Amino acid sequence: MTDIASSPPIDAATAPGSGQRLRTTTQIYMYVALILVAIIVVVPLISTALGGFKTLSDLRGNPFGMPTEWQWSNYGDIIVSQRYWLQMGNSLVIAVLTVFLTLAFGAMAAFCFAHIRFFGSDYLLNYFLIGLMFPAATAILPLYIRIRDLGLVDTYWGVVLPQVAFGTGMSIMLFRNYFRNLPSELFDAAFVDGCGYMRFFWHITLPLSRPIIATVGIISFVGSWNSYILPLIMLNSESRYPWPLGIMIYRGEFNTEWQLVLAFITLTILPTIIVFFLAQKHIIAGLTAGAVKS
Amino acid sequence: MSMSDTTMPGRTFAAAKPRAAPQRRKRSLKHSKWPVLLLFLPPALMLFTVLVILPMGEAAWYSFYNWNGYGVPEQWVGWRNYQLIFRNGAFSQALINNGMIVVASILIQVPLALWLATMISSRIHGALFFRLIFFLPYVLADVAAGMIWRFVYDGDFGLVGGIAHLFGAEPPYWLADRDTAMYAILGVVIWKYFGFHMMLFIAGLQSIDKSVLEAADIDGATGFQKFRLVTLPLLGSTVRLSVFFAVVGSLQLFDMIMPLTGGGPSNSTQTMVTFLYNFGVTRMQVGFGSAVGVVLFVICVTLAFSYKRIFMRHD
What we know:
The complex is a heterodimer.
Chain A: H1 2-5, H2 9-13, H3 15-51, H4 56-61, H5 72-79, H6 82-115, H7 121-129, H8 140-149, H9 156-181, H10 184-192, H11 197-208, H12 210-225, H13 229-234, H14 243-253, H15 258-278, H16 280-293
Chain B: H1 2-20, H2 23-62, E1 65-66, E2 75-76, H3 80-87, H4 89-121, H5 127-139, H6 142-153, H7 159-166, H8 181-206, H9 210-218, H10 223-234, H11 236-252, H12 257-260, H13 272-281, H14 286-310
Antiparallel strand pairs in B: 1-2
Helix pairs in contact in B: 2-14, 3-14, 4-8, 4-11, 5-8, 8-11, 11-14, 13-14
C-alpha cells in the first residue's frame, strides 16, 4: 500500500494509472475481508481438530494454540474402537441404500412424466411435488407409528424408506426436467427403429443422464449421511446408530472430557471433508444447482 | 406458482409430438405405454403415498385425540390440542425464534453472501480457494456444526472463554443465558449457511449479461453505481430465492439446536421442530405432537404458496 501511495503523482494523474491504483487498493481491501471471513470459518474447525490432541487442562488454559503435549492417544483410542467404525458403517449403509432407491424410483417415475401422456399425469406430478413443501418432521409421529406397525423400527429400512419417500419429489423434479431437455430426435429415431420404452430408458436415457444422476445422488447422499432426526426416532439400538447420533451419545457419555469429544467430532467429519476437497467441483455444483432447480 | 408453470412445456411437448409423427408410430407408442407405466410409477407412488401423504393425513386425524401411540386412538378431545399449542409460551417463543432466523437471514446473511459473491466473482486470485472454504460448513452435518460451536461458545474450555481470558474478563456463557442463547445460535446458522447463499449469488452474477456492465462503464458509472443500479436489480430473482431457502431452512431447523441447547435454557431457543420433538415425541404425546405437525404443515404450505405467488411470480 505504501508503494502505491508514494508512486509519482504524474503517473497517478493519468487515467489508466489512477484506475490501476484504485484496483490495487480495493483488491487489498477485498483480500483483507475475504481472509477475515475465511478465518472465522476455519478457526472453529481447526481448534476442534487441535483440541482433540490436548489434555483437558491444556484445553482450559489454551483453547486456541498448539497442544503443549500432543495426546495422540485421544485419537488413537477412537480409531481402534469398534463404535467409530460401526457408526461410519451404519451411516454408509443407510446412505448407499437411500441414494440407490432415490435414484431408481425417481428416474423411473420421472421417465413416465417426461415421455408418456397418460390420464391425470399433470395431477400426479403435482401430487409428488407436494412432498417438496414440508419437512419430514411435520408428520414424524404418525410416520413412526407406521414404521412401527410395519415392523421396521430399529432397522436400516426404517430410516432408509422414509428418506427415500421424502426425497422422491426432488428426484422426480430434477430427473424429469433433465429428461425433457434431451433432444427429442433421439426419441423419435429410437421409435422408428422399433425401440420400446424400456430399452429406450436403459440404453439411451440413462447413459445420457450421468450429470443429473450425479446431482441427485450427491444431494441424497449428503442429506442421508448428515441426517439426524429420522435415525433418532426410528432407531433404538446403539449398534445401528449412524454417526450424527453417535456424536450426541458420545458427548453424553464423556460430557466432562471435551478433548475426547473434540477428537471424536474431528474423526467423524473427516470423511466428509476429505471427499469434499476431492470432489469439490461436483459437490458444490450438485448441491447448489440441485437446490435452485427444484 | 412455478410448479404448474413447469408442467406447461411438458404438456405442449407431449401433445405436439404425436401430431408431427406419422400415424404408425402413434399406435406403437400406445401399445407399449402401459407396461412401462405399471412398472415405473408404482414404486415411487406407493412409497410416497404410504410414508409422506398418509402420515400427514393421519397427523390431522390423531391431532383430535389424546393418545399415547398404543392401541387405537379413542379419547376424542376436539380442538383442545390446538388450543394447548397456542396457549403454550414455548410455542410462541418457537414462532418468534423461527421468525428471527428469517430476519437475520435477510438482514445479515443475504447482504454478506452477496458482498462475498461480488468479490469472488471479480476475477481475483484465489477465488476458487475462498469458494471452497466458504462452502465447507454447508456440507458438514448440522449436528457436527452444532457440537463444534458448543465447544466454541464454551466458557471454560472453548474459544469464547479463551478470548475472555485473554482480556482478563469473566468468561461469558452465552448458550446458558436465555437472553443471549438465540443470538449465539443465529451466529452458527449464518456460519453454516452463508456459503450456500453465496454460491447462489455467484451463479446469479454469472448469468448477468456482461455487455450491460460494459455499457455502464462507457457511460462512466463508478463501481458502486454499477452495483447498485445494474447488478442488484438484475439479481432480484436470486435474492428472492435466497430468502426463500432461508424461510424453508428456518422451518426445518432442529439438528443444529439439539447439540447446542436442545431448545433451552427455559425454552428460549425452541424452534417449531424442536418444540414438536420436546413436547410431542419425547413424551409420546401423539395427539399433541400431531397437532404441532399440522400447524407446521399449514405454515410451510401457506408460506411456500404465498411466497412463490407474491414474490417469485416472474422468476
